[in-house]
Each structure stands twice: as C-alpha cells, then as structure tokens.
Design goal:
The protein is mainly β and 407 residues long. It has five helices and 16 strands. Strands 1-2-3-4-5-6-7-8-9-10-11-12-13-14-15-16 form a 16-stranded antiparallel β-barrel. A hairpin with a 4-residue loop joins strand 12 and strand 13. It is globular and about 60 Å long.
C-alpha cells in the first residue's frame, strides 16, 4: 500500500492512523518512528477584571496583574509539544512549552530587554534517564524552577491570581537539572543553571560577573505513605537556590519551604508556603550602585481547598509580604518580571496582606471556570498609601486597599 510522505508525517505525530502493514511496506524513516509518541496539547486562558472603585492605575504588583484592570484580557495561549520518558532503562524524550500573550511577555524569558513581543518559551528541554538505582532523570535546557507552591499555569493553582510569594520566586532556569526518587517517601533534585533566570541563555559575564559563576539549587520532598492513614499523600517540600540575579545585578540566596496536607475530611486539603529572598552583595559607590546589603523579602501563605461536588470546588488563600527597610521603594518605574525583586515595583508597600477566595466550576469537559474575589491591604511601611492613583501620577496611589473581582 502506497502512502505519501505527508500522510506518514501526520501519522508520526499521531494526527492520523495508518492501516496495518504500511510501515513495513513503506520503510518509514526512523526519525518519524521516534516521533510516534509525541503529544500536542495546550490551552487558552482568558479573564475579565473589575477593580472596585476608580483610579486603579497603580494596581497591586503581584505577578501577571499589570495592565489587566477593568477589562477583558487574553492572558496567555500555551502550546505544548513533548515526548515523555518511557519505561526503558535508557530513556529519552523532550518537552517544549510555547507561550503567546501578555503573560508570555511578563515571564520575561526573551533576551529582548523589553520582553514586549507577546511570545515566550516557558520550557524547552531534553529529558534523559540513566539506569542508576531507581532511575536518574535529567532535564537539559530550559525548565521550571524547583521551588514554590504555585506554578505558571493558573489552572494548576488553587486560585487564579498569584500569591505575593510566587511574585518574588524565580520562575525558569537554563541549565541541567538532575532528580532522583529514592522510594515512595523521599525524592531529591539538584540543578546547575546560568543565572536565577528567567532570561534564556543569559550568562553572568554579560553583567560583569565571573564567567565561571553559576547558580546552584537543590530540593527535597517527603511524601507520607499509605500507612499514615488520612495523612497519606501529604508532602513536605524544601529548596535552596543561590546565584546571580541579573534583575538586581546582585547575588541572591532564595529559601523555600512548603507543605500540602491531607485532612481527616477527604474533600478538604490544606497548604502552606514560605519564601525568603536575600541579596548579599556590597554596593560599589564608584559605580553608583545602591546599598543592597541586608536587603531581603519574605512571604508567607496559607491555603485551604474544599471539593464541594464533582464539578465545584472552593479555594481560599491568605498571604503576607514583608520587605526589608532597605528596600528601594523609590524605584517606581520598573516593570514587573518574575524573579526580579518585588521591591522595585510600582504600587507595592513594605508590608502587604492579601485574602483571596475562588469558586471553581467545571461547566463541561475541558472548560474550567472561576469567579474570584481578592483583597490586598497595605499593612504598614512607607509610603503611607500604596494602591489606586490616577494614570501618570508619580506616586504610590490614594488608598491602602485594593479589591479585585475576576472571572
């Protein structure tokens, strides 16, 4: 049976099927055979924001919130192409996650200094497994950071908007990540990257640091086994990242600790997350660098989720952000980019408290719908007021409170 090359190509990526015996007759290219396990998936994420009150030019500066006030938004379009690792002792695969839209620009993985192309690469790595013990896995390329309770994909988080903790975390790295699962209880990861990220292929020598200086990271996860009753599946997680952050032009150490906790009520899950970011370089007065010694930020968040019905779930979050007194709050014009210090963002005070409530309902297959209410409050610090303000005003706004209703 004769089949043209175009049909064979479609079959190779699983878009069409071929009758039995075609491969033997046509002597299919080995590369096409290798692609037969490739999967293509993705999503479209849209939203509507209503910021209660008027004069919302200085909305809270948490991740992916800038420019979405009082209107409809195409947040991001994601296209994923990948071949997962199989069960072979020596296994290979890959993953590519392409992003389009405002959130793609805000992720700031492009080398373009403006990051305004509405396109980004979230991940692009080769996956490998070597037959060491239970299997030693590698990711080589660009991959998501190993710390944090929340992730880039909003649909995978309990809430639609991101926490303040996520907003000070690194997001992606370019390098090599090694992970190993000792048993069902203990797993660890260790990585080496160019920088804190997120800019792909960015090197330390581009910012005047030693060309051999790298960013190192490690994490450990403990999972409760089935023998622990209602606690089974609960996970305790910790991670440390140390390296150069070009967003600050400084060396940074980041600590993360978090847990997802099952409860005696099967439909209720709890979570907690702690993030701590610290700069530890001395200033160079000759170069006009600001004094960042002792400059730090930390965030604490608590989560509760309740699966009310098969289609409806309720999610709550309380989080708190504290910036060091040394924070450069007068640097008001910096645009938000994950991994950059939150203290350089417009509309962020030294202390912020936030409450978020989310109702999620799955209308039908492949549709996730959410209604969310979020309240941010300046809990202290200077300037005296953090949010609101008229467009173009060179101040921090006219109110200590910001209320968002999002769908």
């Amino acid at each position: 049976m004769k089949v043209n090359k175009w049909t064979l190509g479609l079959a190779a990526v699983g878009l069409v099927s071929l009758p039995a015996g075609v491969q033997a007759e046509e002597n299919v290219n080995p590369m096409l055979t290798a692609l037969s396990s490739t999967t293509i998936s993705g999503y479209v994420n849209t939203s509507a924001h209503w910021n209660v009150g008027s004069g919302n030019a200085n909305a809270p500066g948490y991740a992916f919130n800038e420019g979405k006030q009082d209107g409809f938004n195409l947040d991001v379009v994601k296209l994923s192409i990948g071949r997962p690792l199989d069960e072979a002792e020596w296994a290979a695969g890959y993953q590519v996650d392409l992003l389009f839209g405002d959130d793609a620009s805000a992720l700031a993985t492009q080398r373009d200094s403006d990051n305004d192309g509405d396109f980004g690469i979230q991940q692009a790595y080769v996956a490998l497994r070597a037959p060491v013990g239970n299997g030693l896995d590698f990711k080589v390329g660009v991959w998501d950071t190993i710390v944090g309770y929340e992730v880039f994909d909003a649909g995978s988080n309990p809430n639609y908007t991101r926490s303040w903790g996520y907003s000070i975390e690194p997001t992606t790295h370019t390098g090599v990540l090694m992970s190993y699962e000792f048993n069902e209880i203990l797993s660890m990861a260790f990585g080496v990257a160019n920088t804190f990220g997120p800019t792909i292929n960015e090197k330390t020598w581009e910012s005047g640091e030693s060309e051999s200086y790298k960013t190192y990271m490690t994490s450990v996860a403990l999972t409760a086994p089935d023998e622990m009753g209602w606690l089974a599946g609960s996970t305790l997680y910790g991670g440390v990242i140390n390296g150069f952050d070009s967003g600050d032009g400084q060396n940074k150490t980041f600590f993360y600790g978090g847990a997802t906790i099952s409860t005696p009520v099967e439909s209720v899950t709890l979570g907690v997350a702690y993030d701590y970011s610290s700069l530890h370089d001395d200033a160079d007065p000759v170069a006009g660098e600001p004094d960042t010694q002792g400059k730090h930020a930390y965030a604490l968040a608590g989560y509760v989720s309740f699966q009310a019905t098969e289609k409806m779930s309720l999610h709550g979050r309380a989080d708190y952000l504290k910036l060091s007194q040394a924070s450069a709050l007068d640097e008001r014009e910096a645009d938000y980019a994950p991994g950059n210090p939150i203290w350089t963002q417009s509309g962020v005070a030294e202390k912020v408290f936030s409450l978020t409530g989310t109702i999620q309902y799955d209308l039908w297959a492949n549709v996730m719908s959410r209604l969310e209410v979020r309240w941010d409050h300046q809990a202290g610090g200077s300037p005296g007021k953090a949010f609101g303000g008229e467009d173009g005003e060179d101040d921090f706004g006219s109110t200590k409170d910001s209320v968002l209703i999002a769908a």
